[in-house]
Design goal:
This protein has 367 residues and is mainly α. It has 18 helices and no strands. The longest helix is centred in the first third of the chain and has 21 residues. The radius of gyration is 21 Å and the shape is globular. It starts with 6 loop residues before the first helix and ends with a helix. The N terminus is likely disordered.
Length: 367
């Protein structure tokens, strides 16, 4: 029988994942001292928290607060164009990156333009401007069909309340992309377009999106040693895994029995097969899978990984916190739930839908 992990083992694994993820995402110019100070501060803060609150789930909640502190305190010695981004002043950073890209285009510096476009996508995603981020990502894919980084593809892993996509510019762009040879030639671009249509409220668009997602999710043929490079095969392989995960949004999962266990095991294996920067959305949907099966503790841990390990994915992080808070309240832990609701209000004040839901929940507790 599989034994449940001790709270310290779970906390240690989460810390290792968070530190490794930060190492991968940290700009090369960041000093060793900055990184060491951040890790030391994390250890001290978590240790104090553990002594005060021994509950496993409270430790996870504490890590959310910790991640916010680290982001504020760990200031890098970055150039001016990265300083605002690292301070989470995404609006100012966006204006700087857009101006820098325009300057780069005048001198025809292609690589620099690509870098600025990636940073623009990251800013727009953090600002919850998904439609604009999608347009920029298509631009990236058009210029480099296999070079657009999959960790920044703005997939609609969930739709905020009141933001049902309509057959306007966003879906029309996705449909046009899938109808053109250059669109199908870029796996990351095809993934974004297919996922956009898959969450449409129009049946014909949903069907088109699902058709292309299933095509992208098909297993790759064996390598034949031809001219296709391993790097291109890796992009195709990662795209296939993300497409498979995105299809979980609509796939039924049995409530019990062997089939449910097999499906959950397959989803866990897929998430583990992805590189760390690609796991935010799949972790979110894995948490939804656990929730459907009433595996509440596993659902909480999967969802809490998103804001802890991927704080830059702010729309997904805020939604994950909301779902985790609901689960805590449903399972008789209202105080822990209220901590998360307050964390949402403090950390995501620009996300009206998340703040409104958090305030409603807190008001319901008070009255």
């Amino acid at each position: 029988m599989k034994m449940k992990k001790h709270v310290f083992e779970e906390r240690h694994e989460l810390k290792i994942e968070r530190d490794e993820n930060r190492r991968l995402r940290r700009p090369a110019r960041c000093s060793f001292a900055d990184g060491y100070a951040a890790r030391l501060n994390a250890e001290v803060t978590v240790s104090l928290f553990l002594r005060t609150f021994p509950s496993a789930l409270l430790v996870v909640v504490g890590l959310i607060v910790l991640s916010t502190r680290l982001s504020a305190e760990n200031v890098h010695s970055d150039p001016a164009d990265e300083a605002f981004f690292n301070k989470k002043d995404y609006a100012t950073a966006l204006a700087i990156y857009e101006k820098a890209r325009n300057t780069a285009s005048e001198t025809n510096r292609r690589q620099e333009r690509q870098r600025q476009t990636v940073m623009i996508i990251r800013c727009l995603t953090a600002l919850n401007q998904q439609d604009r981020a999608a347009r920029e990502y298509y631009l990236l894919c058009r210029n480099d069909p296999f070079g657009a980084p999959l960790e920044y593809v703005p997939l609609p892993w969930f739709l905020p309340p009141g933001r049902a996509l309509t057959a306007t510019a966003t879906e029309k762009t996705a449909t046009d992309w899938l109808s053109q040879p250059h669109g199908l030639a870029s796996p990351p671009g095809a993934l974004l377009a297919s996922a956009t249509l898959f969450v449409s409220r129009f049946p014909e668009n949903r069907a088109l999106g699902e058709e292309h997602l299933r095509r992208l999710a098909s297993p790759l043929p064996p390598a034949t040693g031809d001219r296709e490079s391993e790097e291109i095969r890796k992009v195709r392989r990662d795209t296939a895994r993300l497409a498979t995960a995105f299809l979980w949004r609509s796939q039924e999962i049995f409530k019990d029995g062997k089939q449910a266990e097999q499906e959950v095991a397959a989803r866990e294996k897929l998430v583990s097969s992805l590189e760390e920067p690609l796991r935010a959305g799949p972790y979110f949907l894995l948490g939804e899978t656990y929730s459907r099966l009433a595996r509440n503790e596993e659902s909480l841990l999967a969802r809490m990984r998103v804001p802890i390990l991927y704080p830059e994915s702010r729309p997904l992080a805020s939604k994950s916190l909301l779902e985790a808070a609901r689960t805590l309240k449903k399972t008789g832990r209202p105080e822990q739930a209220d901590r998360l609701y307050r964390e949402i209000i403090e950390t995501y004040p620009d996300f009206d839908w998340a703040v409104q839901e958090a305030r409603k929940a807190l008001d319901g507790e008070q009255y």
